[in-house]
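wait is this the right file?? whatever heres the structure
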């Protein structure tokens, strides 16, 4: 997965961001101000930077330019709600802008979209004897290729990219079938069962009265 730099002066928010990002497999580094962020940027450039706007000293808007100069995508994570601020941040070259307080699912979706556009997204994901090649759209388990339909693979790819995260049936319908899909959430249950039958039941856990979660550890569900 990606190497993500979190630039945020509030330790509690850094902790929340790190928790959700590492849960789905990303590696995180942290900086509490612009000076620390610039020092990290001068070493190994991250795949993505999450910037707070209201930092002590140099603000996130100014810092954004340093990242864009090195072609590092930027996602602003801030409490500044004014449209003018959002427009200004985007004009500086930021890829996206999310407001605090944020929903973890929305944050992860925005991160995923930015990484995909920047071509930093993982190509192959491995979980024990299960390999999911996201680029080639192939699934291999125990050395044998598993035949999936296009829809089944899209569903599995969604689970893999958001692994260890509980996904509602409605969210899966929206992401995999499309917002205009007229079917009911029962179709998600049907396709999840088919997917379990093909890849093994231990990877996709049922989240009671909510939806499903792909377990990177292969926990029973």
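ok assuming it is, sequence goes like this
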């Amino acid at each position: 997965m990606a190497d993500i730099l979190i630039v945020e002066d509030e330790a509690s928010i850094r902790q929340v961001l790190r928790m959700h990002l590492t849960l789905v497999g990303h590696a995180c580094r942290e900086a509490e101000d612009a000076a620390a962020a610039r020092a990290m940027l001068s070493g190994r450039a991250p795949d993505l930077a999450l910037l707070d706007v209201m930092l002590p000293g140099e603000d996130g808007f100014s810092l954004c330019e340093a990242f864009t100069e090195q072609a590092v995508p930027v996602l602003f994570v801030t409490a500044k709600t004014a449209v003018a601020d959002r427009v200004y941040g985007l004009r500086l070259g930021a890829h996206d802008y999310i407001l605090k307080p944020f929903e973890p699912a929305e944050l992860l979706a925005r991160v995923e979209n930015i990484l995909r556009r920047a071509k930093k997204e993982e190509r192959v994901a491995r979980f024990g004897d299960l390999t999911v090649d996201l680029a080639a759209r192939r699934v291999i388990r125990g050395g044998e290729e598993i035949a999936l339909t296009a829809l089944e693979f899209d569903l599995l790819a969604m689970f893999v990219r958001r692994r260890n995260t509980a996904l509602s049936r409605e969210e899966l319908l929206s992401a995999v079938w499309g917002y205009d899909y007229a079917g009911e959430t029962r179709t998600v249950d049907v396709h999840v069962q088919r997917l379990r039958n093909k890849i093994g039941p231990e990877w996709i856990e049922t989240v009671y009265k909510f939806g499903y979660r792909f377990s990177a550890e292969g926990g029973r569900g």
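The longest strand covers residues 3-7. so i think its the right one actually
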